[in-house]
């Protein structure tokens, strides 16, 4: 969960029945806090509170960010990272949702595959990258696979739990009316599971970007992760921090875009 996922007091309401629900609220306090922290950063560098060549003023970082945007280098790096993250995310979504539904509804497959999934799931992503380099090399295949693997688990887990938690009355009612398995999947299982699936997809949205950058830092020749390492070795902290700012804005934009899409496709999620 990111800071953008946590509602402020103004966005929390309570229905007549006492159920908590979210409503649009002002983001001004959060924005003011970010501005205050950036001003404190600027002051700490200008006033010499932190004496370090690697702690440039925010104004220098913003100037570097503008230069990056004008030169187009950051856009090229972001495009490469987002492309890898998007491909891995789509692959993980398809596999996670499909496998989550199948395992939740098939006891034999669940008993056979779930132990393997539970063994692989806790493994740290950085620990998996070196062995995979031996098999996949350092090209896009490695980075896309790492993104897909890391994004798969939250999507699979929420889908599996969502399907397993469906009220049995819905299933029995569908069977009473002799609804086919295909119609039951699209008419009963998926609608009842969509909120859980959306939670996993939202978690994977930010995770795929993080893992894509991490893989580029370890075994990359392009992308924002590789760019960050390059700027570190080149002793250009202003450009390095500027790239981090762009990553933060990109992550925030992805999160807000997902929320907008979620509200449009699953409008009943926030309703009681």
Question: What does this entry look like structurally?
Answer:
With 272 residues, the protein is mainly α. It has a two-stranded antiparallel ribbon. A hairpin with a 5-residue loop joins strand 1 and strand 2. Helix 5 crosses helix 6. It is elongated, with a radius of gyration of 22 Å.
Protein traits:
272 residues, mainly alpha, MetI-like fold
Radius of gyration: 22 Å
Q: If you average the pLDDT, what whole number results?
A: 84
What's the end-to-end separation, in Å?
23 Å
Class derived from helix and strand content: mainly alpha
Main β-sheet: number of strands, strand sense, barrel status? 2 strands, antiparallel
Number of domains: 2
CATH structural architecture of the largest domain: Orthogonal Bundle
Give the total of beta strands: 2
CATH topology of the largest domain: MetI-like fold
Instruction: Give the overall form.
Output: elongated
Order of helices and strands: EEHHHHHHHHHH
Please count the helical segments.
10
Q: What percentage of the residues does DSSP assign to strands (E)?
A: under 5%
CATH homologous superfamily annotation of the largest domain: MetI-like
Please report the first level of CATH classification, the CATH class of the largest domain: Mainly Alpha
Query: Spans of 5+ residues with little confidence (pLDDT < 50)?
Result: 1-24
Strand order of the largest sheet: 1-2
Helix content class: over 70%
């Amino acid at each position: 969960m990111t800071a953008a996922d946590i509602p402020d007091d103004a966005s929390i309401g309570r229905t007549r029945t006492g159920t908590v629900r979210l409503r649009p609220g002002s983001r001004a306090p959060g924005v003011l806090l970010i501005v205050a922290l950036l001003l404190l950063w600027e002051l700490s560098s200008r006033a010499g509170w932190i004496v370090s060549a690697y702690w440039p003023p925010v104004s220098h970082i913003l100037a570097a960010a503008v230069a990056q945007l004008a030169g187009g280098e950051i856009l090229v790096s972001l495009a490469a990272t987002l492309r890898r993250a998007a491909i891995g995310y789509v692959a993980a979504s398809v596999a996670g949702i499909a496998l989550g539904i199948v395992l939740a509804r098939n006891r034999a497959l669940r008993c056979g595959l779930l132990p393997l999934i539970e063994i692989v799931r806790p493994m740290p992503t950085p620990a998996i990258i070196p062995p995979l380099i031996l098999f996949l090399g350092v090209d896009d295949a490695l980075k896309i696979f790492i993104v897909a693997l890391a994004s798969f688990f939250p999507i699979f887990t929420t889908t599996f739990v969502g399907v397993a938690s469906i009220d049995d009355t819905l299933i029995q009612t569908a069977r009473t009316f002799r609804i086919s398995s295909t119609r039951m999947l699209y008419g009963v299982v998926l609608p009842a599971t969509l909120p859980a699936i959306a939670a996993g997809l939202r978690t994977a949205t930010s995770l795929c970007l993080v893992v894509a950058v991490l893989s580029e830092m370890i075994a990359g020749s392009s992308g924002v992760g590789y760019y960050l390492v390059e700027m570190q070795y080149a002793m250009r902290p202003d450009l390095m921090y500027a790239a981090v700012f762009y990553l933060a804005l990109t992550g925030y934009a992805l999160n807000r875009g997902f929320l907008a899409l979620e509200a449009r496709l699953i409008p009943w999620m926030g309703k009681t």
